[in-house]
Amino acid sequence: MGMTLQDLEDAASAPSATRSVLIVDDDRISLKFLDHQVQAMGYRTVLASDGHEALTILQHSPDAFGAILLDRIMPHIDGMTVMQKIKDNPRLRDIPVVMQTSAKSPEEIEEGIGSGVFHYLTKPINIDMLRVTLRSAMRTFETHSTNKQARTNSTAGFGMLQSAQFNVRTPEEAKVLAAFLSECFPEPERVLQGIEALLFNAIEHGNLEIGGPAKAELSQSGALRREIEQRLSDPRFASKAVEVTLTRKDGGVYVVVSDQGEGFNWRDHLKIDPVHAGNRFGRGIAMAGSVCFDKLMYNDKGNKAVAYVADGSALNW
Question: Matching InterPro entries, A to Z (predicted)?
Fold first, then answer.
């Protein structure tokens, strides 16, 4: 027998080792057989008779499961579509999916594995193989959850940060600060590259006055790093710093990057343009504006950038 709604809610708050297995199969006989076998292995089960029902259950209780046993061939919404929905959802993508199917062609198996399936079982299911696979899947999920929680605990304070101000001078300092600041945003991986691009531009083009064409030439010759180090020691630039301010307001997070340079024509660089595709300077600013932030603005002069990302944690399908 499958679990009730209350059982699901209890499982969602339980340690990962006691979480349930979601079994998805449109064949009622196969579903009952798998339910019996998986419960005999010591796991609690939840049953879904098609892909739509499975997605509904996952949407309601995304934290209740430690593994999913998914049939590939089903009407309406097939297993591959369900798999894609799972991998596209941040709250579900780490749950190991064991796909079971009668499709045995190398192309179909390769497609399944390529989609991120934890393991691929062909019908008729070998119960010993299923037992080993589910045990491995549960252990994998438990290990991942433990590691993820440790990372969450170490960065939990970033969400409490309301405002902070920093000064950086060097690219090395910029890398460290970018990694720190990214953790204050809803999706750190999304914004990291954009923050780095803004900081590097402020240091290299702004404070150190290495313009776009000069930067491209120095990069091609392998001399950019040496030129940056020399200018950082030059009395004309040694005292210059980039001021960085992070503020949480207006339902999101702002980062403001100000340099002491003469600015640049930012209007030519905010959108991805084939002209700048091979240029680290142009491409970095364009990626920041198009991909990394919800909004990116500059002052008229071009020596102050304001980037914004809205807070949001909705469960989207």
Answer: Bact_response_regulator, CheY-like_superfamily, HATPase_C_sf, Sig_transdc_resp-reg_receiver
For the chain, what's the residue count?
A: 317
Q: How far apart are CA 105 and CA 97, in angstroms?
A: 19
Per-residue model confidence (pLDDT) at position 14: 45
User: How far is 113 from 95, CA to CA, in rounded Å?
Assistant: 15
pLDDT tens, position by position, 252-288 = 999 999 999 999 888 877 765 444 433 445 557 777 7
| pTM across the whole model | 0.52
Domains of the chain (ranges; CATH) run 17-153 (3.40.50.2300), 161-310 (3.30.565.10)
Tokens at residue 75, please?
Answer: 């009407």
Identify the burial level of 16 via C-beta atoms within 10 angstroms of its C-beta, where 0-12 means exposed, 13-18 middle and 19 or more buried.
middle
CA distance 253 to 191: 11
Q: Are 244 and 168 in contact (CB under 8 A)?
A: yes
Worst-scoring range by mean pLDDT, 58-67, 111-120, 297-306?
A: 111-120
- Give just the sign of the alpha carbon dihedral 282, 285, 286, 291: positive
- How large is the average pLDDT for residues 296-314? 87
